[in-house]
Amino acid sequence: MIRQDAHRIDSKRRAIIDPKKRQFATPIYKQQDYPHRLNLYDTPPTAEITLEQFEQWAIDRLKVLAEIEACSYRNKTPAETATHITPLLDKYLPLGSNTSASNGTVDQRLKNERQKDHYSHFILRLAFSATEDLRRRFARAETMLFRFRFQKDDSRERRAFIESLNLDWESVSEEERNELADHLISSTPGLRRLDEETWYKVDWEKVPELVERRSVFLKKGKAYVPGREQLAMIMAEFTARLERSLELTSRALPRLDEDDRLTPILNHLSKNFGSADSTFTEGEGHVDGAAITASSIDQLSQHFPLCMRSLHMNLRKNHHLKHFGRLQYTLFLKGIGLSLEECILFWRQSFRGKTDDEFNSQYKYNIRHAYGDVGGDARRGRGYPPYSCQKVLGDNNVGIGQSHGCPYRHYSVDNLVGLLQTTGVNDKGILREVREDVGKQRYHIACNRVFEFSHKNEIKKVKEDGTWSQADLDTIVHPNVYFKRSYLLKQLAKAPGRD
Amino acid sequence: MPHSVATMEPPAQPDNETLPDAPEEANGVKLEDMFDDDDDEEFPASSARDVKMESSPAPAPEPVPAPFQSGVDSDVMLAFYQRLFPFRYLFQWLNHGIVPTREFGNREFALTLQNDAYLRYQSYPTADLFRKDILKMNPSRFEIGPVYSTNPRDRKTLRGGQMKPVSKELVFDIDMTDYDDIRTCCSGASICAKCWAFVTMAIKVIDAALREDFGFEHILWVYSGRRGAHAWVCDPRARNMPDDRRRAIAGYLEIVKGGSSSGKKVNLKRPLHPHITRSLDILKNHFGQTTLIDQDTFTSSEQAEKLLNLLPDKSLNDALRRKWSSSPDRPSTSKWADIDALAKTGKSSTLNTSTLRDAKQDIVLEYTYPRLDAEVSKKMIHLLKSPFVIHPGTGRICVPIDPKKADEFDPLSVPTVLGLLGEIDEYDAKHPAGTETEMPDANGSAANGSDIRGPRKMQDYEKTSLKPYIDFFRSFIAGLIKEERAGKRERDETGPKIKADPMEF
Fold this sequence. Notes:
The complex is a heterodimer of chains A (499) and B (505).
Chain A: H1 2-8, H2 11-16, H3 19-22, H4 51-73, H5 78-92, H6 108-128, H7 132-152, H8 155-165, E1 170-171, H9 174-179, H10 181-187, E2 199-203, H11 208-213, E3 217-219, E4 222-226, H12 230-252, H13 262-271, H14 297-300, H15 306-318, H16 323-336, H17 340-350, H18 356-362, H19 364-371, H20 389-393, H21 407-410, H22 413-422, H23 428-439, H24 443-454, H25 456-464, H26 479-494
Antiparallel strand pairs in A: 1-2, 2-4, 3-4
Helix pairs in contact in A: 4-5, 4-6, 4-7, 6-13, 7-12, 16-19, 23-24
Chain B: H1 3-6, H2 22-25, H3 31-34, H4 51-55, H5 74-83, H6 87-95, H7 102-105, E1 107-112, E2 118-122, H8 127-137, E3 141-148, E4 165-167, E5 170-175, H9 193-213, E6 219-223, E7 228-233, H10 236-239, H11 243-253, H12 274-294, H13 301-309, H14 314-326, H15 332-344, H16 353-368, H17 374-378, E8 384-385, E9 400-401, H18 417-430, H19 467-494
Antiparallel strand pairs in B: 1-2, 1-3, 3-4, 3-8, 5-7, 6-7, 6-9
């Protein structure tokens, strides 16, 4: 690595600074005067702050990021997220625009806010660059925060900010624009008149989001982006830069090892970045007292959430599931406490049409892999955790002939309703509400609605006798939680007065 | 071990034995000097350990359903590797030049051995060693993975996460099994000329999009040996893309979406994106020929009902249903025509002509638009079967397909390994040794020391029907290497000066 770095220093400097010594060279102090509200966080901070500030600023930012992440796990719409986040931002991480200052120029208050924003970002970078998973989550949350602020920014300041970035965007000449008029109009959703927009020609790699959605015109590797899609481009730029620097930070991290003031703070911060519902610790989904074996799955499947139940029904119908279906289902079964041996037995019996040889050579390995029995990297932990709703919903690509994913999201509404009816949900009111939820893309709500409906008597009971607190009945965001809660509720009903 | 087999070979040594000498001499060049490593940190560390999970179901060794080729036994396989497999060209293709570099040396190969064991993370510094190892292991097939930041064989000595994929061709996989719900002639692993038409359409549509929209030029299409085709986009810009850009392209190209229960699979916004308009133009005629005539998809009442479900207007559907149930064997062409005919009679008061037109366009796309296995394209670490290996089930060679002549390609006339070995014997019988000397050197791009010794000996593949395919592959590589050199020169002129270009030869 070091040798490569040497190539990047221009040849004149190479003679003076040995790359090995370079890390001890005095940092070049760069005064930051924060002319803009937004920041792409290119330059690390160099001024001194106290340890208390170091910790407090980081915690404040962390609170905001954790909430943003929680909103996305709960599938809140951007508008809902905005109302939720705004008060928090004002409290913990205010960031005023230039116009909000008394005389329209950047005063000390704004500078302080911006400094805190800048410093806290870089402190958290240190805390969250250690593992791949943390880096990804941090980049995602930061990007959402940036997007949120960018949209809130007033348009004049936003323009000034963009101009200060010096991105290389080539603007499209009028001639070319008229020539491509038809294409531009038909590939840009919501556009009526061509001349309303300034068009930029950029490498398509800069706007992968637009390309993926097919909402931009492409020609020979260039994307023709209308001015109002700036957001997409800026976001891509922001994410790309952040990911790159997180990667670099992670390599530099070992140098901090000797520092006994910051390391504990940073470790503490990274441990606390988490909304509990996104992760699922081992054993959490196990239900005490339930005999979970290959032969009891059929019986238990009445407690499964719809995503798993439809997989189970498909499996029983076709005696086969495609790869991602098997993976999703296997991990779920692992989560409810089915042992590896029983799980292999379960699949063996379910794949009736396959010979033992076929089964052993084609399927068994994957089951063992999912359980962490084989393969994987021992240093990074074996096997996979059961999928959360987030993960199941996030699969954009349920392909032809596949049946995994979330039925609320991936089935057509009519098929979904049909499926619900076969599982015994026939109430017209509920089905209508589910249709509405799904129409508004609130898949979680729909699923929880069905849960509450099919367990309404039991829920009422535990609420009345106070055995379950409200926290026990919080929104379900994990299929295994769905199972556990459903199973426990039905058990309570079967054995009245046990508690 | 294969050595016992070797004695059965004709005494004439296969020509490939004298592989490029030049690479050996050039080994003194420092690898660092040939590359600037700027790209290293651009790639997110995608965990390589997922590969097994993701790729295993698709290429899982399928038992051969019909005994027609009774598989390809290991002797035949070995003879193929010794006499016919174009190791040198495969090397040049992956190496993008003649002097061995990291592009080839750090490339992962995954071998499926005769006993179905699966060996990942193999790598080879040179074409010679590559050939030697393949002859030794005699795999039933092998797959190609990404170029890693370090030699994949060293992965165990590195700390976790240090070996990262750096580049790989952007690949696409089209498999006929994904078409099972819309083809009537065959299902599963079998294929006929009628359903190959779907692959032909897919090649045309994807090829056009990659060239015209994304500006890629070096796209190698390869027959997968049985019922599908692969595309390898080899432009440097494509090879170096991180996963999110690959996902963007896969998303851009994917139109037919949804699982077995998601109902209408094509739902497009209007106006149609230029890519879709162009695809629709390509596919319209194919729909008329393949779906309506050859497949006659909508004859069965079940399929006709599926068609009706995709149409927007209830009363029109009822009218159609009545008409079709009175003549159960009405061919698809007439049924398709009935839609417009009945719509024009104005029987339905609620009918909106533009909705109907849109729905019909969606239907054409649902029944003809390429169905890609998108997962394969999205991840750099995905492995894909190498060109020119033998499909163990059919014995056919995975030959390149010229996208300009996609219509002419017939999977059933692709040479089989037994056929090719027979052709060599036939040729040798007609031209006994000694008469085959006067061959002009057709081997321009791969000139090497061995040619100076005298008139070039004819290579075995040139005696067979594999020749046109290898010639096509060679011209593809020549184009690729030419651009690669031009690109390098440009970089040298603009970038920081490194010493005289070691790639110059």
